[in-house]
Amino acid sequence: QVQLVESGGGLVQAGDSLRLSCAASGRTFSSYAMGWFRQAPGKEREVVAGISRSGFMRRYADSVKGRFTISRDNAKNTVFLQMNSLKPEDTAVYYCAAEISGSGAVPFELSEYDYWGQGTQVTVSS
C-alpha cells in the first residue's frame, strides 16, 4: 500500500510559478515510478509528466514541455512538479500517482498507475 499526499496548489496569476509536492509513504519510494496528472472541470484526467524510479528518465505532455519540470528526491520520498509561466488553461486539480508494477520505464497512461493522491487545486487567473 502507498499513500500519497499532494501540497503546494493555490491561486496565481498568469505567468507566475508554483511548485507542487507529493509526499509518499508505505513502500520503498525508489521502487516505483511517479507521475503528475490533472483534471479540469468537465474534462478527463490527463497526464502532465512522469518520472522513472531513479529520476533519470522523464516525460512531459506537449502542453507543458518547456514550462513544467518533474523531479524526485528519493531520500525524502517526495516528487515535485515545478510549474513556470502558468497559463489559465493550466487550471485544474493536480494529482500525483505511483506505479509499482512497471518495467522501469516512464509510465504515461492513467491505467499504468496503481495509487493516487487526493489532489491539489491550481487556479491560474488571466
Itemize the secondary structure elements and their pairings.
Elements: E1 3-7, E2 10-13, E3 18-25, E4 33-39, E5 46-51, E6 58-60, E7 68-73, E8 78-83, E9 92-99, E10 115-116, E11 120-125
Parallel strand pairs: 2-11
Antiparallel strand pairs: 1-3, 3-8, 4-5, 4-9, 5-6, 7-8, 9-10, 9-11
Question: What does this 3D model show about the protein?
Answer:
This protein is mainly beta and 126 residues long. The protein is 0% helix and 48% strand. The chain is built from no helices and eleven strands. The chain has strands at 3-7, 10-13, 18-25, 33-39, 46-51, 58-60, 68-73, 78-83, 92-99, 115-116, 120-125. Strands 2, 4, 5, 6, 9, 10 and 11 form a seven-stranded mixed beta sheet that branches. The chain has a four-stranded antiparallel beta sheet with strand order 1-3-8-7, with no helix packed on it. The radius of gyration is 13 Å and the shape is globular.
